[in-house]
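Protein Entry — a single chain follows
Next Lines — sequence and tokenised fold
***
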Amino acid sequence: MKRRTAPLAVLAMLSLAAPAAWAQCTNASFQGLYSAQVIGSFITPPPGIPPGPTARVGRVQLDGNGGSSITTTLSLNGTILQEQYNGTYTISSDCTASVILQVPFPGAPQPVPFTFSGVLSNNAMNMNLILLSPAGTDVRIYLNKQRKTTCSNANLTGAYGLSMNGTIISGFLVPPGFFARVGKLTFDGNGNFTGSVQTSYAGLIQPETLAGTYSVNANCSFTTAFTVGSTASTWFGMLADTMSGANVIQSSPAGAVATGTLISVQ
């Protein structure tokens, strides 16, 4: 009986289909500029930190050697604060990460060390982290790389899908409770924007029209100013071209913990 052998072409295809080895990660894999969104709650926080929902959006600069510098806008149970602090990170060969941030809080006598665990993914374009210590929280960080490091209003142009959610604590002309907003905004590249959105205020759905101004800083952060009804509002945001958009946080009026994303329609 004649023995059959697999054609060389078939063997070559099987070889190509074999899984490739994972690339190894190092601290140098995690460097450059990133846009950060932080969400969660302090359930049983350490002294100096009030319980309740919290959120941050900010700019994270990583040196590739394990050092980071962070600038954020924070909502701490509805109190809005501006922050600057530093941290360290270690990236293991399997792309898992350990991050320690020295985070200031107004009720704490000195910065509180926060230890996070996470994973660097998508060719170092993204990192997701969860807070391990101090315990009693469900705080997560989502990082998206911003490859362009010098920006202007022209870098926020065109139509974007808006998605925001969070909690209204107090101070708004609407009931406190869960908050969500989804819609489409259009930025003209010259500092003006308009939009149409649907907003849920504690379950009450309202159509809203937004119109206002924006200003993109050279460091790729930006601010918006607009009026909803009779309430003047602002957002702070940070561009992230790897997500084709930006992260945003409600920065005024105080009394809300609300963050979200802008994602380009195109």
Summary: The chain has two domains: 27-145, 153-264. The domain at 27-145 is CATH 2.40.128.120 (Lipocalin). Confidence is low (pLDDT under 50) at residues 8-21. The CA atoms of residues 218 and 232 lie 25 Å apart.
